[in-house]
Structure formats: structure tokens, C-alpha cells
Amino acid sequence: MNSMNASHAVGKHEEDAVFSVLKAAQEAIASFGREKVINGTIGAIYDDQERFSTLFKVNEIFSSLSPEEIMNYAPISGLPDFLAASIDITFGKHRPEAFVKAVATPGGTGGVRHVFYNYSEQGSKILIPDWYWGPYSTIAAEHLREVQKYALFNNDYQFNIASLVEGLKSLLHFQDNVVVVINTPAHNPTGYSLSFPQWEQLLAEIVGCVKEKQKRVILLVDIAYIDYAGEPDQAREFMTLFGGLPENILVTIAFSMSKSFLCYGLRSGSLIGISSNKGYAEEFFNTNAYSNRGVWSNGTRGAQRLLTEIIKNKDVLVSINKEREELRLLIEKRAGLFLDEAKASGLNICPYNAGFFITVPCEQPAITATKLAAENIFAVPLAKGLRFAICSIPTYKIPGLASKTKKALTEI
Ligand code: PLP
Known about the structure:
Elements: H1 17-32, E1 38-39, H2 56-64, H3 67-71, H4 80-91, E2 99-105, H5 107-119, E3 125-129, H6 135-142, E4 146-150, H7 161-174, E5 177-183, H8 196-209, E6 216-222, E7 249-256, H9 257-260, E8 269-275, H10 278-295, H11 301-312, H12 314-345, E9 357-361, H13 365-373, E10 377-378, E11 380-381, E12 385-389, H14 401-411
Parallel strand pairs: 1-10, 3-4, 5-6, 6-7
Antiparallel strand pairs: 2-8, 7-8, 9-12, 11-12
Helix pairs in contact: 4-11, 5-6, 7-8, 12-14
Pyridoxal-5'-phosphate (PLP) is lined by residues 43, 107-109, 133, 183, 188, 222, 224, 256, 258, 264, 269.
């Protein structure tokens, strides 16, 4: 095939999994009316009137920022107050005993990019779960890396720690650096969260894998949905476990403002590095700040200032947490309805603890999605299942959804 691209960029193209289904849902809405269509494709919170949700206090503070604070550059590594705020918000009361540094990134995506690029060799493999957020493999490929998948669940749909450890050991055999991605709590696309004891067990296993000092494991903990993962303080308890780890384990956390403050489009977050070695923490800061300059320069100043204003005033933070809590409970209510009906109708679903999505594992996701689309139900077909974005489906449309999905699966 002819191409103007450089050799490594030939063939770059990807159908957006959500976009085509969303388009079909929008066409159905235009033909039949909004009430008749269930659009389970959008990974953003919509209220029960199907309006895009934002947090009032967040909007108010953002609107009150001066033009200079919105329009000006931020420092390359991020405003220092913003970095401190992102660390405080990420850990809450569960800050690990370790050296901690942060660098501003455009959302969690930016953090994923930096970890993939700076901590894995070109051409090497990154360990990700088999149920995963699609961009992990795109970002790996974009940076000339590959992904290897561990099975997130065993046959009983429980966390498959054995598969993760096996994958890690096999990669460590050939690579000195292995990046391992763990998307928890409220994993996309299943809503699964690792428990505290599972985290303890996992970290003990990883420590066992890096007894040889030249082997290094870089954990990337993607916490994009943490503020919708049950009680926010409890959801952070596992973070204390990141203290006191061997020096050849670097833990990184991709903090994102997108969901926590419902400002997806402002593109703001930070990559947090946690190490028992002061020098490695400083290296983390320098390396990722350098990458900021080399890839996108600085982050969105207005969003960084927004977070610093929020954290400055305790009452503001309390009020935002309260607003967000209402939305979290709304999603929990929708999930509860879906899960009860799934149980009653015998519909198998991936283990769901919390979060924006519920996923139904199935053999033929695309055919199932098409069958449901004929009934004006739109869900995103993944490689091994169907994803329902309950974050955006109004509560009154949830009853019937699980049983209709079960029926569609039975008829295939
Ligand atoms: N990680 C997961 C699992 C996600 O689902 C998303 C967004 O959908 C992100 C990270 C990154 O989002 P952002 O770059 O907006 O923070």
C-alpha cells in the first residue's frame, strides 16, 4: 500500500469503538424520540433527565478565575500548589510512608503515556488486564511498545492474581523493566475493585518477583474512577501499602480531574510517583517534567488553578464532595436495579463493585449489540463482552435492560 507516512506510522487507523454505536443511538433518537431509546454508550455522567452533569461549585469557581489564570501558561511540571493538591486529593488520609513526587499531565491519559514511554524499553511488552480501557494498547503502539494481557478474572470470575503474577514472571525473564497496569477501583469496563487483602497479596507477590536487584517493576495504578468507588475514604485505604516497598518497585498513580471534578474536557491530572528511594523519586520528577516539555509542553493552567482554589477552602471541598456523592449514589442506584434484574433473569455479568460501567461477558458481542440495537438499546461491543454505561442511562430506563439482554443472548 502506498503511504506518505514514515515506516513506523504506516497503517495507523482505529475505529472508535464508542463512536459508531453512539452515532447509531443518535439516529435512533432522531427517529423515535429520546424516551424510546436507551443510549448506554457514553462514559460521562448524565442525570435522570439525560442532561450532562457537572458540579455546580466547580463551575462557579472556574468561572470566577481571572482571564490571566485561565489563559496564561502554567509551569512545565505544573503549578506547585496544584501538584501538592493533586497528591493530597489522591491519598486523602492514606498517604504512604515514602518519597512522593508529582508532575502535571493532561488527564490520566497523559500519565499513562509517560509511564509507558519512560519505564518500558522500545519494543518491549507492557502487562495490562484482558478487560481493559482500549487506549492502553493504542498508547503502547503509538510509542512502539506492545501489550501482553493477564486474565483479570479466573473461571469463577474472581480476581486472577495467578495470571498476573505468571505474566509478570514471564516478562521479567526477558525484560529488566516491566510496567504493570492495574485499573482499580471501579475498573473500566467492569466496575471491579481490588480489595485491601487482594492488594496486600498482590504486592507481596510482586516483591517476590523482584528479588534480583536489576529487575524493576513499575506499577501504574489507574484511579480514574476512584471517587465513584464506594465511600471515598475507604476507596483510598490501599494506598498506604505503597510505603516501604523495595527500591526496585516504583508505584505510579494516574490522577485525573476528568471524572472526579466532571471536567473531562479541561484535560488535567497528574502522574504521582512513589518510591522508597529519594533519588528515584527525584528522577521520576525530572524525567516526566522533561517529557512534558518534549510532548505537550505545559498543562491547562485554568484547571490547575481550579483545583488549588478548591482545596484552599474546606467548605468548598465539602460542598463539592457532597454534590459528587449525590451522583455517585445515583449511579449506585442504577447499578443496583441492573444487578438485581440480572440475577433474577440469570444474566451473567462481570463482577461489579462500583463505577460508570457494567459489562456482560458474551461470545458474540457485535452480534448481540446489533440485536439489542434493533430494540433501541445501544451498548458498546468489546472484544469479550458488552459494556453498558450506566453512568449515562437515566434510572427509569434501567428496568428491563438486563432481561432484554439475557433474551438477546439466549436467541443468538
Ligand atoms: N483510565 C481509564 C480507565 C479511563 O476510562 C479513562 C477515561 O475514560 C482514563 C484513564 C483517562 O481519562 P482522562 O485522560 O480524561 O483523565
